[in-house]
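G., before I forget:
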Amino acid sequence: MLEMWLSGFQGLLHVDVFLLVVLGMVIGLVFGAIPGLGGSTAIALLIPLTYGMEPFTALALAGGVMGSVPMGGSITSILLNTPGTAPNAATCLDGHPLAQQGKAGLAIGAAGSANAIGAIIGTISVLAVLPLANDIVLLFGPPEFFLMSVFALIVVATATRGKMLRGLVTGAFGLMVAYIGYNDIAGGERFTYGIEYLWDGIHLVPALIGLFAVAEMINLTVKGGTVAKSATAVKITSMTSGLFETFRHLGTVLRGSLIGTTVGAIPGLGGTVVAFLSYSVTVQASKNPESFGKGNIQGVIAPEAAICAHDCSALIPTLTFGIPAGAEMAVFLGLLIIHGMQPGPLMLRDHQVEIYGLIWALTASCVFASFVGLAFVRVLAKITLVDSSILVPLVLSTAFAGSYAIDMSIENVVVTGVFGVLGYLMMRYDYPRLMIIVALVLGGNIERNLHQSMLMGEGGWSIFTTRTISIVLMLAIVAVLALPFVRALIKQLRVRPVSVGE
Amino acid sequence: MTKWTRRDVMISAGVAAPALLASRGARSAAANFPTKNIQFVIPYAPGGGFDIYVRVVTPVMEKYLPNKVSIVPLNVASGAGSRGVTQLYRARPDGYTIGILNIPGMFILQQQQGSGAYDLNKFTWIGAMGEGEQYFINVGTMSPIKTFADLKALSAKRPIKFSVTGPEGTAYMATKIGASLLGLKSQLITGYKGSADYVIAAVRGDSDAVVAAVPTTMRFRRGGQLRPLISFEAHSSIPGLPDATSVGQPELENVRVERLVAGPPGVPADIVNIVSTALAKALVDPVVVKWAKENDVVMKPRTPQETVATVTTQKAFFEKWKATAS
């Protein structure tokens, strides 16, 4: 295995292959930064270019693209509150407030370095786990997916501290929206009102572009001025400050990477949930959770580390079973098959060099992209000093065009507009947006896996109590629910002796 | 020669009859076809089975067109595929828009969504991306069920649990009809997303068995994860297994997925011929043949007439079984 691992690396050292990884990285950065495009569009467009290539070279190019997309996406999330890709939406929550404080450079630097470290940790875990991939993927069935989705929903919900009721309202709204479209279990469509577009449900990316980009632009128009409130703060941005921040919060990076790696290896939840999960766990673990959402650098580091780690380990189910973890991986699967590589248990046996080459390419691209991000920090940060009269039309037209470009449907643009207004109102009246997104992503998962579990267990609930991982997950859910009360109790106990003493 | 002169004179005099020009345009379009890129509509997302076939075959197909143009795949996945089908149906019938259609998927879609904006009988059928895919019933290799006889014995005691997509999927229909023809009591665990997902469900033990197309079956069998029990083919491609002939159910053979190539209604016959010939030559080109072999796909060309016959047979089969399948 070690031999294959090294020959995968050696393969990348050829000048032409290396240049393709770099080319892939540049494309990934650009496509990642433009909302609506993302890695899936980039790879789909590159497929014809790879026809004449050796499979190894084609995979290296794809790895280059996939590795740098998160970095591209995080740049626009931070500067413009516009998530380039769906997982980057989590980065908006604290990244953009930092930009408003004139600390865009710091946030981009931290996102980049968190990305790179996340990718390296992800890669190491994948290399360690790959031989066991079959067993891991088979351990998780519908009961476990159901419980994992519920767990993720609860963790994120409890992160909306102090706004619990508002979180529940937006979460419930997200779940309602998630059930629009085809019913995967019983067939037929629901809540579509005869509109053909709604058969596939509300598409996530147009909704996200609305909730963040459009909402922010409305906000900026109403307020006027520039994104950053302090020009002096922007000007003192240095290349390395973000990097240092990441190393100061190594615990957050490690936790994020671990969450990303673990969840990525199990098909079903996907990058968006991972990013929000990592964010929420970091809020939970923090000593001053109130600072999140207002520009806490850990709110940038946590999701970014998780996204890159997830992208690495999501290769496990994609390669070993052909189960894609999201749209990008689905297109990537197509690329594999076109090049005569059938994802499945034999993939690991027959195409080891290509797989290791791909993993190396992905990691290298993640690391290079971070350097590019760091190198351009000062230039990029200046975007936050552009006046809204110039910035708003530019961003809005890119956002709407990106939304349309996803699958060339004008309805996407309408969804973006509607969610834009909704997002603005939520900002204005202080309703947390993270619940709506997580509910939107997980609603379908929860319903489908619950139904499947019920069918497996012939209508009985015992299916959840007879499987070890299910039981562990249920205990985890109970623990998360109990945590706030336990914390409050400990706080009370600590305070009491003082009051007695008085 | 005189004809040309006269026409040139008419044009220069500015009295050219639009009808005459149009007829000249149509004639030369057929004779020179293609003069611009051809759009290939795929009513599914990039990365799926139908998308992959198109992306493998079309670059080779370009080589066999009389003029050097590109065939550009266009994924129009909205509305569970109906948006793409409608777009293809409404396109100008000049051969510059063609597409891939899933049969019986399209019958199921129309049944579920009403008559819709297109009439499947009116498409111009051009050919097929290989032979229709037939199915196997499989169990995971860890399953206590070893043979088809074991499966039948279990079915006598309780319904067999099959993992499958939602009711709009072709695999759902294949499972329902297959089980019914073989006299198996079935209970479907629905909602899996695609073939790899429902096959893994069977390997994992969510379900007792799974109906999977030949290429999927072969892939997971080679990986040591699936054990095929019975083939829906006339003669099983895996030796020693029961098949449609040996169990006396020839109708099982009609349970299949066809990837047919079509244009909008009314594409002129000579243009159909050019596209169909290029497709047929592409399917026997070494590049495609090699890919097909690696992926357990049989790439046999089909004429437009044979394609129409396939649609007719499949439609009749669907009409007969749609009550069972839904």
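Confidence is low (pLDDT under 50) at residues 1-26 of chain B. Chain B has two domains: 33-132+257-325, 135-254.

More on Monday.
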